[in-house]
Amino acid sequence: MTAAPATLAALATLAALAALAGCGNGGDDRPGPAPSGVKRVLRLATASDVSQEPVRQNLIRAWDAARPDVEVEFVHLPTATDDARSQLVATLQGDKAAYDLVNMDVTWTAEFAAGELIRPLDGDPLEGMWEQVASTARYGDDVWAVPFNTDAALLYYRTDVWRDRDWKPPRTWRDLERAAAAATDGDQVTEVFEHGYATQLGEYEGLTVNTLESVWASGGELVEKKDGSATAYEVRAATPRTEAGLRNLAERYRRIMPPEARRATELDTLRMFERGEVAFMRNWPYVYNVLDAKMAGKFGVVPLPGPRGRGASVLGGQNLAITAGSENAGPARDLLDHLAAPEQQRCLLDGGFAPVLKASYEPEGPECSLTGSAAPGGGGADGAGGEAGEAGESGEGGEGGEEGEDGGNVADSGPGPGPDGLPPYTRALKEALGTARPRPVTPYYAAFTELIQTEVHPSLRQNPDEGTVASERLAKELRQVMEGG
Q1: 381-403, pLDDT tens digit by residue?
Q2: Phi, psi (rounded to 5 degrees) for 101
Q3: What per-residue string of b and e applies to 438-466 under the rule 16 or more CB within 10 Å gives b?
Q4: Confidence (pTM)
């Protein structure tokens, strides 16, 4: 017997009210089990993973296998950060229930929260994390996401080409510029490099990260959070130190980088380093395992240089959030809590990613929960479990650098873990995370980064007379952007 139209309308109304009730309780609603033999499908939207192994996907698959009531369905987004964001926003604005979970770049959290595309979370899912990592998941007074993995950039360098047996990797920008020049001199290296250093200066998010790190290393700021405010920023783009950082980025490009760096992404830079075109490279931790599979024993990593020692990396990484319209918020929250646990976070470290928990970097911490072919190094099949990250480069603001001593944070490549059982890059990565800084937490970040790219990219030309960043104009336009104009 067919239900009357009025009955169908009443049922639809009740269903809508139930869905709205589920959206308001912080992602912790625990609906009853699905009917016997019927699985809840969690749709997780995520960009493609360009790392050596699909450790993030394997962690999700392992949880999925242990839950007979749930099946995770991956919806793959474009690898490029900007393209992935655009697709997510367009989809969720049209249908907030299109996905249950989104794997977001950390800079999207505020925008998605302000746009009511994701829901706030109850409890304290950020316990045990670095404060700067936790800050990427907050907006206003609420927590809107659980950091999956974080990220801090490292300086990769060749170890096998130096004629000086006492050679040490650079700690300051002055050190790096000298070493980059030495790498092109056959009297100082056994393998002559065409250029010394490469980073990612293509007109995408990587250029924004480069710009921020260069400005910070100069002692400047593009924007600075107002005292006592969680979301409001003051613009500082026209100060002398900020101008010096912008100038240093362009000058360093002309002095020690290949012309192709102006169009380079993380993958382009990795290929330059692999092919022996540059002796130094700024990139993310996931690159270590990719390189180690091809050129073990020929490279090492240290934290990024600064004006007088260790510099500050932009904080990267991905946050997992539950969509505002998800009808499976209970199991979705279970998955978030599972992935933030120490055993899963340790798997990320072994797989070349930066865990969000401080304890994951200690030798006495828990072992990775994955086993067999799913474990990092276990030879699992390629997959897709997240997006690789961003890129950047720093500068010294014209201040005189001082020669730094090696602080014991060097990690040379080699087979297997170190004597403490941790991957060889662990100490350098931990130190880099200790000084890493988040990008502005604002719902207007997409406009912020687009403006930086538009203003800075034209200054990156081989001819220094072709243009510089007009800081007064940049400051004026930033004020409009940060106010939502």
Answers
A1: 433 333 333 333 333 333 333 33
A2: -130, 145
A3: bbbbbbbbbbbbbbbbebbbebbeeeeee
A4: 0.83
